[in-house]
Amino acid sequence: MLRALMSAPNFRHVVVTGANRGLGLAFTRHYLQQGSHVLASARDLDAADDLTALAASHRGHATLERLDVADPASVEAFAGCLPFEEIDLLINNAGVYGGEEPRISDVDPEQLLVTLQVNAVGPLHVTKLLWPRLARNARVVHVTSLMGSISDDTSGGRYGYRMSKAALNMMVRNLGHEAAERGVVTFAIHPGWVRTDMGGPSAPLSIDESIASMVETIAQVGPERNGAFVDRDGEPLPW
């Protein structure tokens, strides 16, 4: 487990996608409480009541913008409205679970493409357009899933979700090489099975438990772990 490997960085300027609920909302709340200026996004801000209330209680430090990571025009518009010059931390959190798909006969190719677009292509596009605005020593964190691990797949099913997270993991692995060249740290993090709308009520972890571990890992993972796939405590996971 990673602990106290380096002094905690000062994330002055933070960007969080998919911040309207669950882990994204909790990330936003944590960094606002730490005094960061957070740009938080949601596909439908009109329905993001909790996020809107959180931003209202942190006026001057919270900025809300609409972002549909599956829509290239939306990503481009989002990248053009940053309220700060440099980004110290980018958290690509927006994602969908897709269909059940227990058998290949259940796979809907159109739905699968939507899942891939949101979970893999979207984070790639967001990162690409925000890349020039990353500060030196910035961190780019991609919320992934152990279900994207090929070697850990012992049960099958969930074709779209598994494929999309495996694609995201490969993107992060690839990006790690470029990140090292400019002093940026990027990695994919598995939050655990968490009681969110996506994780369901049977999940063993609360949002607060998952976030507490992840924010510590985000602060401590250094350049030597660039392109890594880790759990919420920073331990490596099988590809």
Note down, in words, how this protein is organized.
The protein is an alpha/beta fold and 239 residues long. It has a single domain (13-231), classed as Rossmann fold (3-Layer(aba) Sandwich), CATH 3.40.50.720. It contains 6 helices and 7 strands. A 7-stranded parallel beta sheet has the order 3-2-1-4-5-6-7, with helices on both faces. β6 (185-190), α6 and β7 form a beta-alpha-beta unit.
List the helices and strands and how they pair.
Blueprint: E1 13-16, H1 22-33, E2 37-42, H2 49-56, E3 62-66, H3 72-79, E4 87-92, H4 109-130, E5 134-143, H5 159-181, E6 185-190, H6 207-220, E7 228-231
Parallel strand pairs: 1-2, 1-4, 2-3, 4-5, 5-6, 6-7
Helix pairs in contact: 1-6, 3-4, 4-5
Give the overall shape, derived from the CA principal axes. globular
CATH fold field value: Rossmann fold
Neighbour order of strands in the largest sheet: 3-2-1-4-5-6-7
Query: How many structural domains does the protein architecture include?
Result: 1
